[in-house]
Amino acid sequence: MxxxxxxxxxxxxxxLSRQFYRSYTNNKEIHCLDLAIKHVEQAIQSxxxxxxxxxxxxxxxxxxxxxxxxxxxxxDLLRAMHxxxxxxxxxxxxxxxxxxxxxxxxASRLLDFFERFGSVCDIEKAIxxxxxxxxxxxxxxNSLINHAWSLLKRSWTYEASTKMTKxxxxxxDIGLGLESKKWPEQDRIQCLASLSDILVQNYKQNGxxxxxxxxxxxxxxxxxxxxxxxxxxxxxxxxxLALQCDHLAFVADRAEKRREAVDVAERAxxxxxxxxxxxxxxxxxxxxxxxxxxxxxLGGSFLDDAIRYGHDLVDILKPTDPHRRFSLQHxxxxxxxxxxxxxxxxxxxxxxAIYRRATVDSSNLSNGELAILLHNLSVGIQERYHTxxxxxxxxxxxxxxxxxxxxxSDSDPSNPLYATTLSNSLYCRYDRLQQSQDLDxxxxxxxxxxxxxxxxxxxxxxxxxxxxxxxxxxxxxxSRGQYEPEHMSLALQAVNAxxxxxxxxxxxxxxLGRSILxxxxxxxxxxxxxxxxxxIELARSCLTQSTLQIESAKYTTELAGRLMAKVIKLEAxxxxxxxxxxxxxxxxLYEGLLRNEDAPVLERIGAGQTVAGIQxxxxxWVTSHGLHQETIRLFPRLGLKxxxxxxxQYRISSLSKLTSLSSFAAFVSLAVGESPLKAxxxxxxxxxxxxxxxxxxxxETIQLVMRHPQLAERYHDLRDAxxxxxxxSTPSPSTDIVLxxxxxxxxxxxxxxxxxxxPGFENFQSDLTPDRVCQLASHGPLVCYNVxxxxxxxxxxxxxxxxxxxxxxxxEEDVKSNVQKIIGxxxxxxxxxxxxxxxxxxxxxxxxxxxxxAVRPVLEHLGFKxxxxxxxxxxxxxxxxxxxxxxxxxxxxxxxxTSTENTVSRVMSSYVSTLKxxxxxxxxxxQWSSKAQLEQxxxxxxGVSMPLTQEPGWPALNxxxxxxxxxxxxxxxxIDFKPLSCPSTSTVLREIPLHNxxxxxxxxxxxxxxxxxSSFVLHGGSEQPExxxxxxxxxxxxxxxxxxxxxxxxxxxxxxxxxxxEGIHLGSAVQLAGFPAVIATLWEADDTxxxxxARGFYHELFQADSDPTWSKDVGVCLHKASKAFRTRSIRRxxxxxxxxxxxxxxxxxx
Length: 1150
Known about the structure:
Elements: H1 2-27, H2 30-46, H3 50-71, H4 74-90, H5 97-117, H6 120-134, H7 142-162, H8 165-179, H9 185-206, H10 210-226, H11 231-245, H12 251-272, H13 276-295, H14 300-316, H15 322-342, H16 345-360, H17 367-388, H18 391-407, H19 415-433, H20 436-452, H21 460-475, H22 484-496, H23 505-520, H24 525-545, H25 549-572, H26 576-594, H27 601-617, H28 621-632, H29 645-654, H30 657-671, H31 676-684, H32 689-697, H33 702-707, H34 709-723, H35 737-756, H36 770-775, E1 782-788, E2 791-797, E3 802-806, H37 812-823, H38 836-862, E4 875-879, E5 908-912, H39 915-935, E6 940-945, H40 959-972, E7 976-981, H41 985-991, E8 997-1001, E9 1004-1005, E10 1015-1018, E11 1026-1029, H42 1030-1034, E12 1043-1046, H43 1066-1072, E13 1077-1081, H44 1087-1102, H45 1114-1127, E14 1129-1130, E15 1133-1134, H46 1139-1142, E16 1145-1149
Parallel strand pairs: 1-4, 4-5, 6-7, 6-8, 8-12, 12-13
Antiparallel strand pairs: 1-2, 2-3, 9-10, 10-11, 13-16, 14-15
């Protein structure tokens, strides 16, 4: 009876406690919770058995925990912890599910202690209890299973925060133990999914337990089998499949997993319906899964699908959704992949445009988020730089990379990537501008990136390989040995540190081959052969495994090049049979690359030039001819017209093989029986590309304006947009200089095509037709030389025909040797007074060789024997593009005053770089003469002199005499002459349009690296002089221009062999600016000679006879003035023997 009463009292107290606890949960008044605790404590005291007491203790533990959470009183937490322990100790029951529940409660309280105090030992004790509990057999009802599962997930969260991988592994085992219990189906699905996610997280945290990843995939697959209509579950399964791919040894297995991951994600898409939240998740996953499938070689359709799903994703995201910005980034990455696969630059442009859109509005981004966007944009522009080779791309990529690196925090896990991107962008600028400090900084950034990476990182190979390649590049600029052991070691480490299944390993193998090849350059023949064999096998391996078109093209070029290197060594060892086999393999590789429509055009042209040249060397003329023509037809794809002058010039320089390509192609054209005219057209195809582009932009449009004003206006707008100089400052993130210029160039090409459809404009900006070529010889024959290893010849154009003259005495090696004597570092034309006699003798010897081997055969063919009177001497134009064009053809021969065995005694010479330039200057001269006579324009001369230059190293010039001589002539003829002494660049540019003749008497500074930077040295009004460069001058067009007399050093000479076909110097720049007739110099002008030749020239132009000034032949005037100076007597002997003094002055143009 007493027992019943106690039980009733206990039940009554329990009910009171529950009512007070419900009140607390409703109003959060702490006194209600205090009363709940008080009454449940009284219930415990009145309990009659262990089972009843257990229930009351459970309530008390719950209430104490609630009060702890409210007041954070540690006593409450301690009591809540000890209650389950007390129960286990006093309980008389055998081990059963009640004990399991209490053990879970104890573990939960220990986690409370960890949360409160952060003691790792508490969480370890909690895991110990969970291990014991899960391993215990008993009645596991749904409540206990869920309780244990909740405890596991909570433990996982806390343990993960401590980064203790051992505890995570124990929790994984606990989870697998719980998974084996008998769950209700719906709860089991959630268990499988959650446990799979835990296993994935554990894998990502330590990366070492592949079995966890396999187990995670098994659980996810089972969950999807039990519940086939859960899209998020399917997406998780696809994600796990994707993770597995990275650890499969065979490419076929990886491809199969990637394909399944895509299939699973597409099934998820079919299930989401109209739910925008789930659709975003699924589409985002589909973009990633399809891109990954493409990257393992499943085909371009997967990449197309990734882009399509990406656009679908962006369409459903609101403009303000922060996820939209990063979804755009995913599309851009896919477009980058598309560009790599196809070689089509348009996809890369689209990717860069998307990156720009993402970075424009960055006000609401954190520094870390903005750093990611800037980094991605920098990577895209770097990739385009390797195609465009533009300064603007190199500079912008570097600026963006710097900003990204500066914005990142010290703990940012992306720091290694940002440092590497900075290093790569610095190398791009070094590659473009060749400034050694950029390469040094790139190496420093690469070392910094490597220092961020733990040695066990799976990505360390990339950082090792990058640094290795930079050290190889540095070896080219420093003494051997400093980086020799390191670059080899790093390259080998990169390969060894990267798993075979990692697709990036191909690139590291390729770089290892380049490192070995670089090392082999300084070894004996035997070791070099062994190294070469190993690099060939490495190149074969890379080519076999590569799936990207751009990479495949690069590896093909590398393999073919290494095969050719071995062929040369084998032939040196007289092992012709082996070399023959390798040569055929190399030729097949080059031909395949030439015809690979998906390969980059630069690689295709290089391959075509090489294989065509080899076939020509084997005298397989027909085969070589076909290959040459295939290669030349690729030129328009270079897109040169979209580049600014500096970038266009650099691109041509980087393709210096084009020089030999056009020469070889012309020679082979003749060898297969084509006409000299066609061969000449082939020769001109790759010459004067820069000047030809600017000539096209200056095409005459008067008739077009009159007949089709709207089309003319569009043409002018596009032409002006392309002619406008690009600002030197870095563009804003929203401005894409390279893309804008390409779009302008494409639009201009379409407009020119439309103009040519109009009757009467069929030849607008077109190449010279056969009849127009012969018309150019109406004032005198044109001579163009072609120099090749298999023979040399001259093309001679007259009004009736184009003929070729073989030159058997002219050898390519002799031409190269003598060219260096004129434009090389130790050129004989630049000397002091002590060396003058010796150098004059050397120059006379060169001129004798030039006469016998090149000039005399041409003049003999033309029947020019020499006459006693200048009036009867014929005119001739030397087309100077090419190696022979840098030599003084007008001064060839000897005994200039007493014999006709020289050029000056037989013809009056003029120079022009290409036929197109001659046509342009003739048109300009005709327009100017007509305008001047019609409007009765009087001559007006601007004289620019700089007797003194502020910059050290420039000697004083005796320009006063030269200016005085001009003044004497102009005063006598009443010609307007405005001399400017030491003017600024702005003053000169302002005065040029007001005069039709300009005369420069100053220092000329020929830039031997960038001929567009060749300049006149003027007065800047400060300690540093100002420059008026060739690039600046060519950007103007002067409608009133007639003659430019450039009495400065080297104004008509080019010193860059890789641009020898271009004819870029101050003289050609002035011609492009509108001056049809230019007097220039081939080397440093002597002060006395400059003054006397100038006097004689202006005397012939204005005084010598009664012919109208505008009808005077400027070339004839210079010829007579030079002869007068050459034949006068001087104290140190005949003036004609001082060739260095009288021979530099030449007439260029019409």
